[in-house]
Amino acid sequence: MRHLLLSPFRFLTWVLLCGMAAAAAPPPVHRPLNALALVKECNARDLGATGWRSVTLEMHTGGRVTRTLKIANLWQDTAGGLRTLFLLEGPGGLRGTSYLLTEPGPAGLPMQVHLYLPAGEGRVLEIAPRLHDDGLLGSDFGYRDLLWRLPEHAFTWTRAGESMALGRRTHLLDAVPSGPELVASLPWVRLRYHVAEELRMVVGIDYFRAGETAPAKTVRVEALEQRDGVWTPTRIVASRGGGSTSVLTLRGARFHLPALPARHFVPESLPGFAEALRGGTSEQLLTQTAEASP
Q: Does domain 37-292 have CATH number 2.50.20.10?
């Protein structure tokens, strides 16, 4: 209570000095995470697994839709890594075509893709690493574009600045392949990931070839929303230039489903899923699989 006895002039001086001291206090230091730390945070976000979603894939040439596919996928974390099962629902002639994508795990195991074509020889084929960036089903998307997590191994990560996307601040992270096998199989010398700071999720990718400063391919999330507490893209566009673009549009999604036995996420399961899909939708198939699993 002693300050109440001060003269008005001394009291005013005391207030001003306190205010100046507060104004002069340095702002809290913001220490940005390094590139690999951001990658790890991005990979730790909630993916809604076990999850199911269905999308429409449209291929555009010269602004005209030339082909439309309906695809469903189911993903789950397993002891062998995060695995995603892709099932082609339409058009009818391709119905049942499926593949299994196994993402690189903590141990640094390489990405794997197994494909099953019902119209083929009835065998499950492993896609060679040099084909992982080829157009998926004739589109501008490659298998690598559909990874849930960023590859922590076999790449050297650096920060490349900041930008804005979807009204959100994003970190630009450059990934340069360093593993000898990856360097030999990858058509790109550098990949630039756009990671939304608030959401810790990838909202864009740029792919660069040797000696080129402009990306040879781009992938952009153009819309996203939160469903069941999980942020998910609702529209993604991939472009390789030359008037060709491909658009993924979300049709439906379910998250945090009961986990399924790991046996459903192995290459040997693809023929069975493909055959079962001929008699119903992927959502019906998922329900039947869950009910039949002990």
A: yes
